[in-house]
Design brief:
The chain is of the alpha/beta class and 185 residues long. It has two domains: 2-96, Spore Coat Polysaccharide Biosynthesis Protein SpsA, Chain A; 103-184. Helix content is 46%, strand content 13%. The strands form two sheets. A three-stranded mixed beta sheet has the order 2-1-3. It has a two-stranded parallel sheet with strand order 4-5.
């Protein structure tokens, strides 16, 4: 991070989950490959667990926005880039990241992630962030219904915890999407 921060105002690295987590936690929360981390269809971001920022930049931006219960790292990085600061992300260096190992905390976090994602979409729509398409949201819900845990895992390809996590993310997205007008046709 220190090396990367020499060239950027905000810097981040990828995370890996294999070394610190149980097989159960890994089955609930699959990790995106390093080359796909920190990407959105709006602006890139640094993952909070492996992010560095110059103190002057942090002060200038007023720090993290604590009104977000999740996705503060994404919001901060978007705000920094929109203010003209640079963001660097390395997929070579990785930080070991511990996942939620208990079901209830993982589901609470999942709901907050979905809600935070939709809140970001709604708040940053005026700056060019694409809204969530009703068709896409409908396809996510269809996939959840088709791959539900009442069917054998061999058919659905999803562990029950993974399905539950996806369900809570989608519920959070719908709640946040309605509250922050993050949907479009």
């Amino acid at each position: 991070l220190a090396e990367l921060a020499r060239s950027f105002d905000v810097a981040g690295t990828a995370v890996e989950t294999q070394t610190l987590n149980s097989a159960q936690a890994l089955s609930w929360t699959p990790t995106t490959p390093p080359e796909d981390q920190g990407r959105t269809d709006f602006l890139p971001f640094a993952i909070g667990a492996s992010m560095a920022c110059w103190a002057s930049v942090y002060r200038d931006l007023g720090g993290m926005d604590n009104r977000f219960r999740a996705s503060q790292d994404v919001e901060f990085c978007w705000r920094a880039q929109l203010a003209g600061y640079t963001l660097g992300f390395s997929t070579e260096a990785v930080v070991a990241y511990r996942l939620r190992a208990e079901l209830r905390p993982m589901l609470r976090q999942s709901f907050r992630l979905g809600f935070g994602f939709a809140k970001l979409r709604g708040i940053y729509r005026t700056q060019g962030c694409p809204a969530m398409s009703i068709r896409t949201v409908a396809s996510w819900w269809t996939a959840l219904l088709v791959r539900n845990p009442l069917l054998p895992t061999a058919w659905t390809g999803l562990a029950r915890g993974h399905w539950s996590r996806a369900l809570f993310i989608r519920v959070g997205e719908v709640r946040g999407g309605i509250a922050y007008r993050a949907f479009c046709w």
